[in-house]
Amino acid sequence: MRHRALLGACWATIFALLLGMPGRARATDVVSAIPKTSTPVVMQEVSQDGDEWSKAADATLGQTLRYRLTGTLSGDLDEYDVYPYAFVVSCDKSLRPQLKTLIVTCVSSGEERDLSPYFQVDEDGEGLAISCVNLKEALPDIDSHDLIVVSYQARLTEEADLGLRAPNKSACFVCYRTRGGDRSVTPEDVALVYAFSIEVQIVDGATTSPLEGVRFALRDDAGSWFAAQCWSKDVAKRDVRKTDVHGSATFAPLGSGSFEIVETEPLAGYKGRDPLAVHIERNVRDGLPVLIASCEGAESVRVDAKGGLVSILVKNERDESVALQARVAGEGNSASGETMSVCSRDDSHLSALAMTGESDALPQALSICLVGVACLMAGMVKRLCIC
Fold first, then answer.
1. CA–CA separation, 130 vs 123, rounded Å?
2. In a 10 Å sphere around its CB, with 0-12 CB exposed, 13-18 middle and 19+ buried, how is residue 287 labelled?
3. For position 38, what pLDDT does the model report?
4. 141 and 224 co-located in one domain
5. For the chain, what is the mean pLDDT?
6. Same domain for 228 and 295?
7. What pLDDT shows up at residue 322?
């Protein structure tokens, strides 16, 4: 249904009476060679951070990816008077195309000519239809060996699927008319974008109990902070995550790269941790994608490649200086509910007294005892006098 709706929009646009769109900047990338056939074919590629074009990439939240669609033409193009042509792109909701970056060119003998004014771009929330009513009119000297190239940028959003088993997909095919006037489409071509997550779990160094309420932030190797829907150099905009009852905090979506997990504020009674250096890498082994991760200073690192989860376990030690200060402050004054021990001369345990009153309860008890002893002695003296 999704492709059918896009295909219908494409053909409706092709036969629209009004065409044209503002010219845009020319593409400068070299187009990859694709097989020439008698009927059109299309190849879709993706690139990240200026890397080479490929069929798969990975990205982090808010990162801009570059897409390139390369379509061939019919081998008998010279026999056409009217040659409609359109790219139909269907992408996951996690990939948001930036239409202002879209350009269309014709590559002929290594030279590029801008065709953007002759193409109409329609977006319906699920994809793009990029169409031209008649390529023969847009470029009278067009040849069957020429290539039609669309390039644009798309941004990865927080809705990204995670893991090697759930890449974020962008699919493309080309619509064209045969010489007999029939509609036809090329086989679909797909480009993939992977995303992952980092989970930091922190526990007590002595008891290994989860620590709730520890605050962490994430920084990349360029010094930018993980923030809402993007990355920011402004430390005030960073997204600080607090560990839950399981002692865990998660950051996603993330691509390959080096990061630092930074504890922003030590938990009361605990020492603050130094930043944790984390590295994530998507690679290929024996033709299959793999996910590799490492972390300096962690107790353990677990990788769930299919789910895209890198789980890091760290310990936090108690701050003994804080505990010592608390003991010094409490000397001579037993707080409510504190248990005190009374021992005999041979250090054998006699009893434990739970003080549930105020801090001066012990002096009050001793006063009562002294009064009782005085009364007892006074009674004995009275008896002696009577005798």
1. 9
2. exposed
3. 82
4. no
5. 79
6. yes
7. 53
